[in-house]
Amino acid sequence: MRWMDKLLMRSKMLLGRDRAGRQLSEELEFHLEQQTAENVAAGMSREEARRAALRSFGNPATLRDQARDTWSWQGLELLLSDIRFGIRTLVRTPGFSLLAILVMGLGIGANVALFTVVRSVLLKPLPFKDQGRLVRLYEANTKGFQDNIVAGGTFASWQTQAHSFEGMAIKKAVDYNLSGAAGQLPELAHAQQASWNMFPVLGVEAAVGRVFLPSDDRRDANATVVLTWGLWKRRYGGDPDLIGKTILLDARPFTVIGVLPAWFNYPDSQVQLWTPIYHERSPEVMNMHTAHNLDAVARLKPGVSIDQATAELNTIQRQIRRQFPDGPVNDAANIRPILDAEVFRLKTGLYAMFAATGCLLLIACLNIANLLVARAATRRKETAVRTALGGSRARLIRGQVIESIVLSVVGGAIGLALAEAALLWLVHARQDIPRADSIHIDTMVVLFTMGVMLVCGLVAGLIPALSSNDKHILRILHESSRSYSGGQGGVRLRRVLLGLQVGLTVVLLISAGLLLKTYTRLRSVDIGCATHDVLTMEIDLPKGSYDSPAKIVTFYEQLAERVRQLPGVQAAAVSTELPGQGHIRDDVFTIREHPPLPKGQVLDASTVFVDPGYFSAMRILLLEGRFLRPDERLDHSGAVIVNQAFVRQFLNGENALGKHVKLDMVDVAGADTGLQIVGVVADTLETVSSTPYPTIYYPFYAGSERSGMLVVRTRQAPSGLALPVQRAIAQIDPSLAVANVLTMDQILGQSTINASFDATLLFAFAVISLVLAAVGLFGVLSYIVAQRTPEIGIRIALGAQRPQVMRLMLSDGLRPAIFGLVLGLIASTGAAQLIQSMLYGTPALDPAVYALVSTTLLFTAIAACAVPAWRASRLDPMTALRMD
Asked: What is the 3-state secondary structure (H, E, C) of 409-436?
């Protein structure tokens, strides 16, 4: 057990060094006294005996040091000593230390925050069993569209014929009116209709009760529902007795059979409940191959790759296409890992932001390195003296690196706190981000932060440490006494580091400028309708109460009339969708007056149901013909209106009025024989970044659509009418709940939120980088002026004019800035290509953005250099020459 004794002794020497040192001295003195006593007993005098004992033992101090070296961790003690020395050095210069810590904290904080978002959203596995085998299935076609959602009939064919999957399930997003009970208010609950095996495929079991069984997912079964944990806790207080009881969804009783686990938030946290899809939807709809409205999820069998499964689905899909050559049936399939399917639209933006934070962190490190180079230059005499006294180069480098790491650790701790605050803001501001509820700092993020601290400390510390050349001690001592340079190597290094800083700043500024220009263009796009002072809200009539077209039409007609009579209302109308909301629904059709299409070709247009007052309320121009009439309702709904894009794409300049469109899937009287085009209206945009899409407007009062968007154009702030409009709805049906009460400006804001967020965040990083670059320029030139003060005094004494001195100093400061600007412009051409997919109406090489950034950078550089240059030009020659 000698190793235990050694470990114990070493631990004592480390933790109780002073006490162990005293014990060692006492033990040596004891043995020395014993030897002295023996010498005295042999007849020596006390003094002679002591000297003999010392000759026998050797120097006690040397013995003590040798024993301490044997029983202590010398390397660790030296490291602790260097850390203590570094901390004392930083404490002696609080201004320098505080600036360096804040710079490092900003860089590390931004980097940690974006790493947390990227990891939580893009990289962290979903909390499902064997997530690597879970995939999303899409229909695709050989023309390039790869991510079309699935038709019910297609899914049925895949499910029965494919052998690559353990299980395959479908779901569809819907809304239910959740009726109030015991004084509760009704609410519109976001829900998912899913096949019974959705939860077994995902590998999820109920936390309370059970999930669906095959018997629940039949048309003749009793209606059942599974609640999410959040709804169960929020609305029902987590009552376990709720299992087996009924709740009213769309005025129909549903039996609660289970509650999902608290962690389950798929596909997003807004989903409140789940119902069985085959129970809720008719067999005719679920077996159609042309209605693409379902999301398919599957679990691969062990050992089956995505490529193998895709090849099998492609074979099946081609067979389906041969069976249905005339409809909108795709001829291929596509498969994505389930995580990738949820977040792939965010990848480019998040990775771009993460790269931007990396640039910001590198700029921060270069700034710290610049500060340390200047600091090292002022300590060259101290370093030379320590070298002359025997300090090794490795020991001196280690000391500088440890000092940098101490700065980085303190800055990293501040950065971690800043990152936590930034993430709290982000989760609150961007709840639309998939998996936003999973964004938080965990052990992996803390480890990443520690790694970033270490790397930043090493980079910022090694650059000045390795650049110094302390071999010529006498020359350094001479330089520090009279020369202006203070080490020309240090000056050159600072200029190089500053040039790199400026280059990275230019990259961030140009990227931010391109995204800001994109956002500005998106918000200035005319979507073809009224957007200011327009209030909207979503209404979904329950099937139980509104089980006939007549009841549906009566409700919406009464509602529109009541709302139009409210004070401050200019116009009110009802529609199934609004411009700027995105593509909602499209259907295939034929034009009765045109010859039949070749096999395999179809015509497709967006489908919107509107009431007669919709176009006037939204100020959509009528170009030809007329609007819909109030009497075109129920069985007399034989008219439609089309937009300009429809005429351009399908009629090739023909007169649209009087033509008839025949529909396969639209439930309107006369749709199968042909609805007459009675008007042509101006184009509107489905999204601010899209082009006009062919659209057919059907009469809303045909009574086929229960869900509608109420549109109210006001004479005042639209938000003030939200409550009166909801009261008008409650007067007609108190059990109805409304959802998504938004203005049109808010709808457009939601459609541009990604562009706004990316541009704002990157612009903030760019501004911080610009400030750091300006501080760096100011510091470099101030340092150069301080070092060249005697030279400047000589120049002025010999007749140099003050403007000449100022130009000389400005050129010294602007040289690294111009070098960095050129370097940054070159690098920006590559960075702009990487974010090109995020740009709208803005070329990657936009001359205006590049010119503005160059001008801003040069102006900032001149402003940062002007003060030290002016100070240099105002030097008194005699004062400067007397400086040592």
From this structure: HHHHHHHHHHHHHHHHHHHHHCCCCCCH
